[in-house]
């Protein structure tokens, strides 16, 4: 297998992670701008398909040298990645970016709290539950319930993706795992993208935007995160990833004009604090970007 070339220019780990977070949110804003023309299914297909092409060209994995055991772990990893992204984009078409990311984050947070034994760990459970209660539209109005359900389902798949990703990372080098995984990620998404008819609306301009989406949402953040993880402790990285819901809410406000209520901002804050606290006090690390 081919090793990834060492980049000529590298950022210090902290700026690299923060830039990765900003990049993902910029990509989500681009995706939401494409939904009215292409729809979420076609947008997801383009993001994953173009990301797979870019990663295959840059990483150049030797597919013929992969062993059967490696295929068996990378295939479900990729399928989970693709389905997770599809569900997240479907939710993003219905609810604000900040709420979608916050709800999705409940998946990895729940995984981080699995096996919690100390009483203090349950403080994070209570905070997360309070955040969910603040987001929930108890009146049945104001927020799309299907969108919320899709975001939660994407979060559940994010937890599955973490477990499968750990197994895949043990079997394959990180860049190779992501590049090959992206090929499988396209399989559950492409049929919906084709069936939606959105791909027929492609123009050179929209294709350019889709390329930027793939760059900002997948290629750049994955590269920056792998670069940062060479020297940054995993726990520190996980705590920084806990800022994702806040970054998403701010991005939705600045780039998309999406406003959250005070209760929704408090929900974001509670879940971020719960996520950071769980990272500090439990042994199970949290992951890099999921469905975004």
UniProtKB/TrEMBL annotation:
Record's bilayer topology term: Multi-pass membrane protein
Domain EamA, chain residue ranges per copy: 146-276
Endpoints of the signal sequence: none
InterPro entries assigned: AA-Vitamin_Transporters (IPR050638), EamA_dom (IPR000620), EmrE-like (IPR037185)
Subcellular localization(s) per the UniProt record: Membrane
Keyword Membrane: yes
Keywords: Membrane, Transmembrane, Transmembrane helix
Transmembrane residue ranges: 38-59, 71-89, 95-115, 122-139, 145-164, 176-199, 205-224, 236-256, 262-280
PANTHER family named among the record's database cross-references: EAMA DOMAIN-CONTAINING PROTEIN, INNER MEMBRANE TRANSPORTER
Family from the record: Belongs to the EamA transporter family.
Name of this chain's protein: Inner membrane transporter RhtA
């Amino acid at each position: 297998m081919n090793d990834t070339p060492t980049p000529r220019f590298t950022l210090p780990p902290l700026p690299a992670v923060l830039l990765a977070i900003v990049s993902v949110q910029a990509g989500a804003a681009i995706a939401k701008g494409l939904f009215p023309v292409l729809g979420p299914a076609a947008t997801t297909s383009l993001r994953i398909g173009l990301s797979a092409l870019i990663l295959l060209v840059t990483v150049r994995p030797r597919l013929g040298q992969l062993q059967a055991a490696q295929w068996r772990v990378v295939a479900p990893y990729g399928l989970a990645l693709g389905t997770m992204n599809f569900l997240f984009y479907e939710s993003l078409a219905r609810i604000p970016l900040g709420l979608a990311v916050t709800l999705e984050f409940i998946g990895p947070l729940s995984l981080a709290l699995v096996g919690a034994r100390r009483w203090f760990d349950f403080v994070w459970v209570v905070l997360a539950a309070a955040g969910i209660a603040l987001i929930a539209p108890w009146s049945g109005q104001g927020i799309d319930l299907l969108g919320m359900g899709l975001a939660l389902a994407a979060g559940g798949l994010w937890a599955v993706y973490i477990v499968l990703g750990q197994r895949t990372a043990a079997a394959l080098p990180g860049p190779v795992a992501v590049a090959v995984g992206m090929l499988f990620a396209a399989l559950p998404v492409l049929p919906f993208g084709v069936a939606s008819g959105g791909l027929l609306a492609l123009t050179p301009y929209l294709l350019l935007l889709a390329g930027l989406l793939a760059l900002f949402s997948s290629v750049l953040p994955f590269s920056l995160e792998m670069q940062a993880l060479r020297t940054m402790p995993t726990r520190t990285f996980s705590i920084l990833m806990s800022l994702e819901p806040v970054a998403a809410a701010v991005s939705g406000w600045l780039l998309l004009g999406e406003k959250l209520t005070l209760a929704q901002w408090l929900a974001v804050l509670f879940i971020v604090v719960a996520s950071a606290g769980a990272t500090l006090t439990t042994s199970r690390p949290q992951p890099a970007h999921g469905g975004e």
